[in-house]
Amino acid sequence: MTVNEWWWLATFGLLTVGCCLLLWWTFRRQQNWPVRGLNLAVTLLALGGWWLWPLPSVRFVLFCSAVLTGTLEFVLMRQFLNDQDAVFARSLDKMMAQYSQEVQELYANMRGWRHDYHDHLQALKAYLDNQDTQAARAYLDELEDKLDEVDPLVHSGNAMLDAIVNAKLTLAERLHIPVNEKVIVGSTPLIKDVDLVVILGNLLDNAIEAISEQPASEPRQLRLYIGIVKQQFYISVTNTRPADQEIDYQYASTKSDKRGLGIRRVNKLVAKYNGMINRQYEASIFVTEIAIPIHAVKSTTHA
After folding, report:
1. How far apart are CA 175 and CA 291, in angstroms?
2. Residue 171 — pLDDT band, cuts 50, 70, 90?
3. With contact defined as beta carbons under 8 Å apart, do 201 and 286 qualify?
4. In terms of CATH architecture, what is 153-303?
């Protein structure tokens, strides 16, 4: 083989490797099939045209076009993902403000009840002194109803965790979704509040969204368990889902780009704490388990 032939063979090898990398990156990061198809068509055109039109000038144009196309798409895709991240960051700021307000309201309600506790006892004593047990019972029933209104569903021992979970479970109740929860973490240090909001917020949002898409005739259920298991911060979310819901290899519905973005965020944050994610699904059930080592939590939060 001549030098020119070796040169064009090496160039074709670079073109092939570049096209394969572009396809791999596109299929890994882009869920849109038209975009995937366009990249596949560009690759076939570049590689096929190389052999169909062997003129050096044509090959040079094909090589430069493929490189420019791949570079341009990579830059545009990175910009698109950065824009998505910016939108997600703004929504996260709103979520953090909402949950912080809910924590403050929770403590304000608790302080209010402690402040009124003495007055309620005096009122009950007055009814009992007058032998009016019926009025005392009615007064207790009224207090119980008011307490149910302000009493959160979850008392985990962590204020921010309570705010997130209570907000999401309250939404589930409004949508008439049966909920079975057990959340106990005590005073054990958890991950950073902002990371906790992203992980739990996305997991519960996705679960509630999937349940909401079920027909009313199908059984619905949301189960949540959060605790400290074997020196790990453990989260388990189980939800029912439509039997015909499509799930891709990244466990994001093909019908929801927002859900896929949230799952990528969760994956990155769990990896940040050297944690583990286990996702399983059957015909009508989806389960997500997350385990983050406590030692990783301490070292990261104090960094």
Report:
1. 29
2. confident
3. no
4. 2-Layer Sandwich (3.30)
